[in-house]
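Entry for the shared binder. Reason: the reviewer on the internal report wants the predicted structure included alongside the sequence.
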Amino acid sequence: KQAPSIPALPQGVYYGPPDEAPKGALRHLGTLLNVREEKELEVLIIALPVGVSLKDPLHVRFDSVHSHLLVVLGEGARAEIVEHLGGKDQVSHDVEVFLGDGAELTFLSVETAQTSARFHICQQGCIKAGASLQWQNVTLGGGHIEHDLRSEVVGAGGRSTVDWMFYAKEQEIQRLSARNVFSAPEGGGEI
């Protein structure tokens, strides 16, 4: 499956499948989460080089049964990514985020599932010195949703913040887990 059409991006920004991805970004694929060996796995990589900032949010849509997103921001890079997940069947989706020193990312994930859907979502982040990752998750509906988020600050002064809005009704089940791990001094954040 091809990546959706997107507006013109600054030079050096990569948005596409792993077979054409820069080696610097590709080396991160599967280091936080195992890449599933599903037959119809859709893998998308978004990589920003050192110092590049996106002026507008970058929108990504996944309607695949199995998908994996890797986001890599180089030192001082800045971006906002809006991810749209939908489905009526069984869906598995993984997100790996790596932020270089001083990078800033706002990652908004909007999950809209039909009542019959079963979603399994894993999000993991690695934040270096002075970098900032703001996770914003919106979970709407779904028959059975399991969503696990783990964000680790590995550099001094790094920051990880998690905001989560969820809605379920009647027989819908949502199991949501969020953890900030601080493995370096002077890290900050909240859930």
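Summary line for the report: Helices lie at 23-26.
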